[in-house]
């Protein structure tokens, strides 16, 4: 039986913890519960004790423990630590290593995998400091589940709802099942390219690289051997991933072609420049006159060149569109001989370039699936599961 320590923090989403405990026990977990003082304002110990079948803990110093080291005993007992809901306050404390109550002390003492399911108002979730705290926890190896977009208790609508108990339970169960990409070799492109005009200027786009890096991170967690060919970004290198750093579209084309042999899957998530200057000035171009003209030539189409190789890998393209998304995505799928294409809107209120969230419409020959707006980490997992499914179906047909 798997042993999970469930931490509950204060917030209206705490009511979901009752259903979560029921589902975890149904999935053969032994559950022990730790509540913060603010969580006690929303749920009672008696309710959760009845559901879990174990005493509920809330005090850091527990005289009932033989050695008064209840936090150490609980931390060593657990196979996993799940905090759901994880409030903005809790996330901030954990990211800075503060330990002023039982739950935050348990986090520091835990040597098992840690999972957080954030729950907060949509404005709080989008606040820069919250995203910084989330990124810091991810870099420390914490798994973030959700959040989701929808109606909130405050009456607002947006990203910040705690994932539903069933989704959380399914995520945890997936951690204990064979990975769908185990032993597969995957090459992923990410980020923008920079097309030089002179020694100080270049043409680029708004891509942050977040989607490609999320795909690389999750593909590695799913058992794949990952090469990430990336344009310039400010993102940390995903753990265990081989990074090939490039700058221009030509550099990316060269790097991809050098590494593509032997790959099982190629995911072209990079926003590669369609055009590049015909010449690069050797000195800074001076400002003269009221107008200037640039001469541009078309760049090589990386994903099309890969899709046309003999013995090509399963090739997945991306399409970022401002209008007619389905038409352009399906045209690109057929014209470039891709196995799959993931299309997303850009220029919208939420999602797309330089955003922590996105939504995708995925197409393949004779099929399609919508992946709704969510955190790019969650979206990457969903897309990779779908890619694995279609890849295995094609290669076992």
Account of the protein in words:
The protein has 397 residues and is an alpha/beta fold. The protein folds into two domains: 173 residues, Rossmann fold (3-Layer(aba) Sandwich), CATH 3.40.50.1950; 212 residues, Rossmann fold. The protein contains 13 helices and 20 strands. The strands form five sheets. It has an eight-stranded mixed beta sheet, with helices on both faces. A six-stranded parallel beta sheet has the order 3-2-1-4-5-6, with helices on both faces. Helix 3 crosses helix 5 and helix 9 packs across helix 13.
What is the secondary structure topology, with strand pairs?
Blueprint: E1 2-8, H1 16-26, E2 29-35, H2 45-52, E3 56-57, H3 70-77, E4 80-86, H4 88-96, H5 102-109, E5 114-118, H6 122-126, H7 128-139, E6 143-144, E7 148-151, E8 157-161, H8 165-174, E9 185-190, E10 195-196, E11 202-203, H9 210-221, E12 225-230, E13 242-245, H10 249-259, E14 265-268, E15 275-277, E16 296-298, H11 302-307, E17 314-321, H12 325-335, E18 340-345, E19 357-364, E20 367-375, H13 376-396
Parallel strand pairs: 1-2, 1-4, 2-3, 4-5, 5-6, 9-12, 9-14, 12-13, 14-17, 17-18
Antiparallel strand pairs: 7-8, 10-11, 15-16, 18-19, 19-20
Helix pairs in contact: 1-2, 1-8, 3-5, 4-7, 9-13
